[in-house]
Amino acid sequence: MTKDQLQELIGKMTLEEKAAMCSGADFWHTESVERLGIPAMMVSDGPHGLRKQDQKADHLGVNDSIKAVCFPAGCGTAASFNRELITKMGEVLGEECQAEGVGVILGPAVNIKRSPLCGRNFEYYSEDPYVASEMAGALIEGVQKKNVGTSIKHFLANNQEHRRMSSSSEVDERTLREIYLAAFEGAVRKKKPWTVMCSYNRINGTYAAENKEVLTDILREEWDFDGFVMSDWGAVNNRVPDLYAGLELEMPSSGGINDKLIVEAVKEGRLEEAVLDRAVERILNIVYRFEENRDKTAVFDRDKDHETARKVAEETIVLLKNEGDILPLDKKEKIAFIGKYASKPRYQGGGSSHINSHKVTSAWDCVKDWGNITLAEGFRDEKDEIDEALMAEAVEQAKAAGAAVIFAGLPDAFESEGFDRSHMRMPECQNELIARVAAVQPNTIVVLHNGSPVEMPWADQVKGIVEAYLGGQAVGGAQVDILFGKVNPSAKLPESFPYKLEDNPSYLYYVGEGDRVEYREGVFVGYRYYDKKKMDVRFPFGFGLSYTTFDYSDLKLSTESISDQDNLSVSVDVTNTGKMAGKEVVQLYVSDVESTVIRPVQELKGFEKVELAPGETKTVTFTLDKRAFAYWNTTLHDWHVESGEFLIRIGKSSRDIVLEASVNVTSTVRVPVRYTLDTTFGDVMKDPEAMEMMAPFMKLGILETGGEEETGAASEAISSQMQEAMMRYMPLRGLLSFSGGAVTMEQLQGMVDALNARR
Ligand code: BGC
User: Fold this and answer.
1) Average pLDDT over residues 485-511
2) What atom in ligand 1 is closest to the CA of residue 153?
3) Is residue 741 part of a domain?
4) Which of 87, 349, 627, 648 stands the most exposed, by the fewest C-beta atoms within 10 Å?
5) Does the annotation mark 554 as catalytic?
6) pTM of the complete model
7) What pLDDT shows up at residue 515?
C-alpha cells in the first residue's frame, strides 16, 4: 500500500479505531478493523525457532506452542561468526513464519553480555557490539528476505534479568554509544528490521517505553528506522507519554484501558491527533507489507529444517582444548559416553524463546548402534546431589574404555529468562564427576551445554574441552560429527571466559542496588577490560581451535595515511597448512596507539569466515571507515577520531595477534575548546593560534623554566621535569598570583573571552 493509500485509509478510521490499533488485539495479534478490511497481523517468539501459540497464550514459554524446530540459541549462532549461515537460518525461519501466517518473529535479541550471570545470555550474542550487530543483521536479512518482519530486542541496556521491569541502567553517554547502542545500530542502519522491541527497564531513570531520546531522536532520526516500535510484553508504563516518545504498539492487549487514555488525551488536546495518525501509519505500513507479500506456497517442512538446524549447530560448537590432538576420536575405539546430556542434551534455554521441538537428536542417538560406545548417566540435573551409584557406574565405564566423553553443563534451573545466576559455577555433582572420571581415564573430553561461561576447575585435568553452547534440537548429530572428525570445528568464542566470576569487570556493581544499576566499568566490557588489565582469562574472546592449521601472511593496507573521511582497505592472505579442509574466522582489531581519552587496547572492527581446502590460500579483505577508528566524543556528541597512529591487527583470537601494520589517520574535525580561567597553560599550548594570542602574557617571563642554574639543595628539590609540570598544569588564573600585579583580572578575562570568540 502506498503512503497516500495508507493515509486515505487512516482518514476513514475513527479516533477509537486508531487508538485501538496502537495496542494488541490479544496476546499475539495486532488489531483488525473489519469494516475497513484492515487485517490483524500475528507476531510470535523467536528468536531461534517459531513459538507460535494459539490458546492459553503466555509470554514466558509456560504453555505449549505448535511443534516447531529449535535452532541453536544466540550464544551459539554468534560463535559461528558466519553471516551467510545465519542469513540462511533466517530464511528458514522466515519461510516457517510464512507457512504459519506469522508476520513478525520476535528477535534477534542483541543485548550485550555485560556479566556472565545474566539469565538471558544464552539468547544474546556477544560482549562485543560489532559481533552482536553483525550477527543480528545477518538473521534479519534472512528472515526479511521472505517478507516476514523481525523485532530486534530488547532496546536498550537490558543486560540483566534481576528486577528487569523496574531497574534503571545508569550508563554514561559514551558507554551507551560505544557499547550498548552500537549493538543495535549497525543492524538497524544496514538491515532495516521491520520492528524494534523496547525493553522493560529504565535507561538513566526513564523507562525505555517512554524514552524519546532513545526511541525517536536516536532510533528514527539518527538511524533512519522506518518500521514501528513495539513494547516488550507489559513494558508500557504510561501510555500517552509512551506514544509521544515513539512507542507505536503496546503488547499485549491492555484490554482497552490504555486505548481509552489515548482517546481522552486527543479529545482534551493533550495529544495531537497527528501523533496518533503517524503511529497508526507506521503500524499499518508493516501489517500491509506482510499481508501484500504473503507466500501461499510456503511450507513448514520440519524434517528439512531440522537438517538446517544441524548444519548451523556444526558451526556453533567451539573446540576449546585439544591436548595431544586427543580429538578427533577414532570411530573404532572403545569410548565411554558419560553424563545425562549425552542422551538428553540441554539444547535451549527457558522462557519466551522456548521451542516445542518436533524432535531432538542426542549424541547418543547417533552412536548407539555402533557397538563400541557405552553410556552412563553419571549425574542427575534436577538436583545438585552426587548419586554415588551413577558416579560409580560412570567411573567403571570410563576405566574400561580408551577415552571418555562427558556431556556436562548447566541445568535449566541454573539459567533462564526471568532471573540471573548468582554464581558462575557448574553443579558440584558434575564437577566431581569430571574430576573422578579424569582421575581414572587420561583421555577425558568434556562437552559443555550452557548459554554462558562457567568456571572450569577441572580444565587442567582433561585433554579436551568442547563448548557446545545450547545447540538446538539437532545438536547431537553435530557433536558427534565434530568429536569423530567428520566436521572440522570452526566456531570461536564471541565472549571471554574468565577464570572466575570475580574477574569480570561488572562484578562489583552487578546487579545494582535496588533498582539502580550503575555501569561503572564504562566501555570496559569483556575483552576491553581483560586486555587493558593484562589479565589472564581461561579462554579469550575470539578463541577456538580447529583440526587443521592456518598461516597468515602478506598483510597489506591500501595506504599509509588517510583522513577520517577516507576508507582504508586491508587485505591478508590465509593459508590452510594442515591436512583437513577447514574454516577460519579472520579477526581484525584496531588499536589507537596514543589517545587523550581512555580507550580499550584494541577493538574488533572486522571479521570474515573463510573456507580453505588443505594447501589453499585465500585473500581476505576488509574496508574500514571512520567508525573503525572513532570513539564517542561527549563534547561533539558525535564519533571522533584523534589524529595519530593506529595499528591494524590481524588475529586468530583477541590474544593471538599474528600480523600488525600501522596507519596514520588525520582528523578533519576540531573539537571546540571552551577556555576559562581554570584552563591550564599546557592545554593552551596545544592550540598554536591561542598561544600566539597569549604571547604578551608569556613575555612576562613568569612561566619560563630554567634560567639560573639552581645549586645545592634547590637543585635536588627542583628538577626540570618538575618545573615543566608546574607550568603545564598551572591554570591561567595563576598569572594573577605570580605576575606581581602586571596582569589584572580584567585583562585576563578579556583574553579568555577573545580565545572563546574565535571560530
Ligand atoms: C520477553 C520478550 C518476548 C515477549 C513475548 C517477554 O517476556 O522479554 O523477549 O518476546 O515476552 O513472549
Assistant:
1) 98
2) 9
3) yes
4) 627
5) no
6) 0.96
7) 97
